[in-house]
Every structure is written in structure tokens, then in C-alpha cells.
Write a structure and sequence with these properties.
The protein is an alpha/beta fold. The protein contains 23 helices and 12 strands. It comes from Streptomyces heliomycini.
Length: 511
């Protein structure tokens, strides 16, 4: 006999975007096949996990418990009391262990229909009760052994990425039990523009360079968004530089919560070094005046917590470039950090006047380059580069004709799917936030292609590309018309091109 069909709820209007995530959660929780299911939902703080899961359980009549940093006995008591209110039964006697509580939670799925049961911020419980994952594993094993008709859909959610990885890693008791593993990532730059109700692409990118795609930050400023481009500076002053808004100290809270009790001073200094131009472990250690081992430990911690990304150089894979994952942290440590004390004593408008040039060069420029890389992966159609991109990264090469000069760099280097020997080089591109690009930029790319060809790279089908925040000269537009270069401006970043198949959200989930 086939399982009964379950009515699948429509995503509530209070949940912005997250269509793929909602569909995945609904498919898991509404699966009517017998057997208890286990799902894992992870993601950094402030991404809307709790709201999404509460809306899910409300729509399906499920149970949701929000864990807190509390002693074991208090957590057991709270969970027992909330479970009693949900079932309408008398509160249970005082429980001293998790076995009975977990069995009671799983028993919710023995009423003939799938029931979502959510434990939000699961790592907070595990910190006080390390035995809890083994208890859950044992409960699932007993259900399988007894053959009971159980359709509980248990969802364990957490913001502590290292703990979640450890709990569900290869050596963990819960490894292999999960039927669903879902990660909520920040909204991408296009989603963020819609979320903030910003139509001007230049303004949207500037706002994204400050607050990124974290949904909670719009609520932190009571929905205040810049109304037009010339309102951006005033918006920064009345929100992120305003001591009366939660956003003012958010970067400090974020670092404190993500890195627990490690050396936060060194973490702040490392982030400042990266935000102001250092990209490799060696450069950062030299800037901090600290041994490479200490710097490496700090950087590994930040990467493990999802605050840093490390990407191999597109032309020199042994060289790993680091960048700050959370735009608000980059904004803080590049533009605001040197002026923190002044903000306590001076008008924010004057402080921002001094910080704005640093923001334009050290924050907006690199952020624009990252947005261009994101566009390539998530929005550029296959026809743009002749094949679907597999990787996109920053690349650099030394020029033998300029031994004493800086490396030649390209901010947007696109490679395709690997064949038997290598990943084909689809495109080499430059990104300039604040410059009108001309034929000199195209010649720069051609020089890079000549050097790459001399090293044995196949550049036969490599397409030069220029990405600009302010536009291109007529001569470069003419080169585009002749098929010599791909040009991408802000309008194209925010509105043009789409992948031919597969939803963008699904591709972002893969990554």
C-alpha cells in the first residue's frame, strides 16, 4: 500500500526568496514513507534559519524547540515543558537524562503522518551534553530494530559551523543518518538588491559592500535603506556608523560569537591585514609581526567558522589567496576600525568623510571584483564563455620583461570542466570598479594570454573580458562588436544573462 499523499504547504510571504531551501525542507518533512528521518540545517548566524524552520513547523503542525546556552538540567526541563504544552499532556516528572526526552520527541511521529520536529541551535545542547548525538543515534537504531511505524522528521539546526561539521563528520555517531543536509547561505547580490528594494545597480552594489547578503541586517536598521545614490553616504552615517543601531557593534559580536574564546585581538588584526590588502598567510604574518604558526592558527580558525575563504590563484595554484567572507567584517576592518574611537567623540559625517576614500579603494573595488566572479558562476549564460564555468578566481603572473615591477593580475579568471589533462581556460578578465575601461585594459589581458601561452597554457579559445562599474570607451565597445572582448557593466551584472538550465539557487546550494 502506497503512503498517503501529504498536502505540501506554500512558502509563507514572510519568507523572502529561499525557494529552493523551502522546497527541500517541505519535500523532506512531507515524505510519507515509513521510517524516522533526520535532517541537518546549518549556516552562519543571521541568515534566517530559525525563521524558516518556525514557519515550516507552523505550516505543518510540527514542534520547534530553540536551544539556549544553558546548563544541562535547565535544557532538559525547558524541552520537557515545551513538549508537554505541544502535546497537551501533563508536564513530565523531572528528567535527568536525554534518553527519555529523545524517545518522547521521536514518538511524535507515531500518529500516522509525518511530523517535523526541530531542535534549533543544536550545538548549544551538545556543548553541555556531549552524549546527545550518541543518544539520538541509539534511538534511531532502536526504531529500526523494533520496526515501529514512525514518521518523525527530526531537523537539527545550528550556526556553529565547526560543531555541525564535527557532529556529522565521518567519525561522528550521526554520520550517515541524515536524509537531508541543507546549508543556508547569505542572499546573493541580486537577491539582496530585491530584499533592500534597491533598483539602482550601483547603489545596490555599494550597500552590498557594506552589509552583504545577511537578511537580519535590514531588520537591524528598522528597514532603513538608501532611497537613491546620493543618499548612500547619509545612510552609512545613520545606520552602520550610528551607535544607537544594533549594526554599529555587529562586527564585534559576530567575531565574538563565531570564534568563541580564542585570541580575538589577533583575529581583529588578521582581518584588518586582509581587508587592507594582505592576501597570503606569509603577508599576513609579516603585517602582524607574529610567527607564521600563530597567524596560521588564527586564519584556520576564521576559515573553519566561515569568516574567511581561501582560493588558489588561477595561474599559480600553490598560492592561496584569502578573502573575508562577510562584507560587514571587511567594511569594518578596512574603513571603520581606524576610526572607532573617533566615532565615540565626533560626528559620524566627518568620520565617514575621512573613511570614504579607503572604502572606495579597499572595500568597494575588491567587492566589485568578487561580485563579478559570482556573476560568472551564478548568472552568466553558457554562451558567454563558450562552456559552463567550473571555477572562477583571481590570477597573477610575473612578467619577465618587468622584473622589478608588480605582477600582472586578472581579477576574473574562468576555467571550464576538467578534461583528462586540465581545466580549459575559458576567460581572463579585469574588473575595475571606478574606471572607464579602454583598449589599454584589453592589451593588458592580451599580454597575460601571451605569457600563459609561453607557459604551455592553451589560450586558443580564451575570451578576454572587461568588467566595469562606470562603463567603457567607444573603442572598447567597437572591439566587443568585433568579438574581441566580453564587456560586463553593472546593468548586465544585475539584470543580464542567466544559466541555460538548472536553477541558480540549486547551483548556489551545490557550492
Amino acid at each position: 500500500m502506497s503512503p498517503p499523499e501529504i498536502s505540501r504547504p506554500v512558502k509563507p510571504e514572510t519568507v523572502f526568496d529561499r525557494d529552493a531551501e523551502w522546497d527541500a525542507l517541505v519535500a523532506f518533512t512531507c515524505d510519507a514513507r515509513p521510517g524516522a528521518g533526520l535532517g541537518v540545517v546549518s549556516g552562519r548566524l543571521r541568515q534566517g534559519k530559525t525563521h524558516l524552520l518556525k514557519e515550516l513547523t507552523a505550516a505543518l503542525g510540527g514542534f520547534c524547540f530553540g536551544a539556549q546556552q544553558a546548563a544541562r538540567a535547565e535544557s532538559l526541563r525547558r524541552l520537557g515543558d515545551e513538549l508537554a504544552r505541544y502535546t497537551g499532556e501533563a508536564p513530565p516528572p523531572h528528567r535527568t537524562g536525554w534518553e527519555d526526552v529523545v524517545d518522547a520527541l521521536l514518538a511524535l511521529g507515531e500518529r500516522g503522518r509525518p511530523v517535523p520536529v526541530v531542535i534549533d541551535e543544536f550545538p548549544d545542547l551538545v556543548r553541555q551534553s556531549p552524549e546527545l548525538p550518541s543518544v539520538i543515534h541509539g534511538a534511531y537504531r532502536r526504531l529500526r530494530e523494533t520496526g515501529r511505524d514512525n514518521r518523525t522528521r527530526l531537523l537539527l539546526s545550528g550556526s556553529s559551523l565547526p560543531v555541525m561539521h564535527r557532529l556529522f563528520g565521518a567519525a561522528a555517531p550521526l554520520h550517515g543518518l541524515a536524509d537531508l543536509e541543507l546549508t543556508l547561505r547569505p542572499l546573493d547580490f541580486r537577491q539582496s538588491a530585491r530584499f533592500w528594494h534597491i533598483d539602482d545597480p550601483r547603489l545596490a552594489l555599494l550597500v552590498h559592500a557594506v552589509v552583504g547578503g545577511t537578511p537580519a541586517y535590514r531588520h537591524y536598521v528598522a528597514g532603513d535603506a538608501p532611497s537613491r545614490a546620493d543618499d548612500f553616504d547619509a545612510w552609512v552615517c545613520r545606520t552602520v556608523l550610528n551607535p544607537r543601531t544594533p549594526l554599529f557593534l555587529e562586527s564585534h559580536h559576530l567575531l565574538q560569537e563565531e570564534t568563541d574564546h580564542w585570541d580575538r585581538a589577533l583575529c581583529h588584526s588578521a582581518l584588518t591585514a586582509i581587508a587592507t590588502g594582505c592576501r597570503t598567510q606569509g603577508e599576513i604574518a609579516e603585517c602582524l609581526g607574529t610567527p607564521l604558526t600563530d597567524a596560521s592558527h588564527c586564519l584556520t580558525l576564521l576559515q573553519t567558522n566561515g569568516l574567511l575563504y581561501g582560493t588558489p590563484d588561477a595561474f599559480r595554484p600553490h598560492l592561496v589567496r584569502l578573502r573575508i567572507a562577510e562584507p560587514l567584517l571587511a567594511f569594518e576592518h578596512a574603513a571603520v576600525w581606524p576610526h572607532r574611537s573617533a566615532l565615540e567623540q565626533q560626528d559620524s559625517v566627518e568620520v565617514w568623510r575621512r573613511a570614504r576614500p579607503v572604502f572606495d579603494s579597499a572595500v568597494a573595488g575588491p567587492h566589485f571584483a568578487q561580485i563579478c566572479r559570482d556573476w560568472v558562476m551564478d548568472h552568466a549564460g553558457q554562451a558567454v564563455f563558450g562552456a559552463r564555468p567550473a571555477t572562477v578566481a583571481h590570477g597573477s603572473l610575473s612578467d619577465p620583461e618587468q622584473r622589478a615591477g608588480p605582477d600582472l593580475e586578472a581579477e576574473v579568471v574562468v576555467r571550464g570542466r576538467a578534461d583528462a589533462r586540465s581545466k580549459p581556460l575559458l576567460s581572463v578578465g579585469l574588473a575595475r570598479w571606478d574606471r572607464v575601461m579602454d583598449l589599454r585594459h584589453l592589451e593588458h589581458i592580451r599580454r597575460l594570454l601571451t605569457l600563459l601561452a609561453a607557459r604551455g597554457e592553451d589560450v586558443t579559445h580564451t575570451r578576454p573580458a572587461c568588467y566595469s562599474g562606470v562603463g567603457f570607451t567607444p573603442s572598447l565597445r567597437a572591439a566587443e562588436a568585433d568579438g574581441q572582448v566580453v564587456l560586463v557593466d553593472l546593468d548586465r551584472l544585475y539584470q543580464g544573462d542567466q544559466h541555460d538550465s538548472d536553477s541558480v539557487a540549486a547551483r548556489r546550494t551545490e557550492r
